[in-house]
């Protein structure tokens, strides 16, 4: 029997995984089986945390808007502001409102006063 020359597909797959896991510590970057496990774990965490990041930023924006609105007006809150925005059909999302609240509070107060009239 003649010797068959093996291909490089498996080696190419392993090097691709090693490149992905090259910044991991210890055996997680050296051993093939643990690198594949850690790669799957990292990708699962990244996928999960993309949704969590969107959720966290939305919570942050809502908290900022609510704090600024309640600071000026005693009986006015975030939920009333958003409700009045929808009634007046003003399309300002929470990210923009939070940026306005941080950079220029008077502008946010003007918007809320115009809406409540």
UniProtKB/TrEMBL annotation:
Q: Which GO terms describe its molecular function?
A: rRNA binding; structural constituent of ribosome
PROSITE patterns assigned: RIBOSOMAL_L20
An annotated GO BP: translation
Q: Where in the cell is it found?
A: Plastid, Chloroplast
Where primarily located? Answer: plastid
Q: Please, which domain of life does this record's source organism belong to?
A: Eukaryota
Identify the keywords attached in UniProt to this record, alphabetized: Chloroplast, Plastid, Ribonucleoprotein, Ribosomal protein, RNA-binding, rRNA-binding
Query: CDD domains this protein is in?
Result: Ribosomal_L20
Q: Which family does it belong to?
A: Belongs to the bacterial ribosomal protein bL20 family.
Q: What is this protein called?
A: Large ribosomal subunit protein bL20c
Gene source species: Macadamia integrifolia
């Amino acid at each position: 029997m003649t010797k068959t020359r093996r291909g490089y597909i498996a080696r190419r797959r392993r090097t691709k995984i090693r490149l992905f896991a090259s910044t991991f510590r210890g055996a997680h970057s050296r051993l093939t089986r643990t690198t594949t496990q850690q790669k799957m774990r990292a990708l699962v965490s990244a996928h999960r945390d993309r949704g969590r990041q969107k959720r966290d930023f939305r919570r942050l924006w809502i908290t900022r808007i609510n704090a600024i609105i309640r600071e000026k007006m005693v009986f006015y809150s975030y939920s009333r502001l958003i409700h009045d925005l929808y009634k007046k059909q003003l399309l300002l999302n929470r990210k923009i409102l939070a940026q306005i609240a941080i950079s220029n509070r008077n502008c946010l107060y003007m918007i809320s006063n115009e809406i409540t009239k």
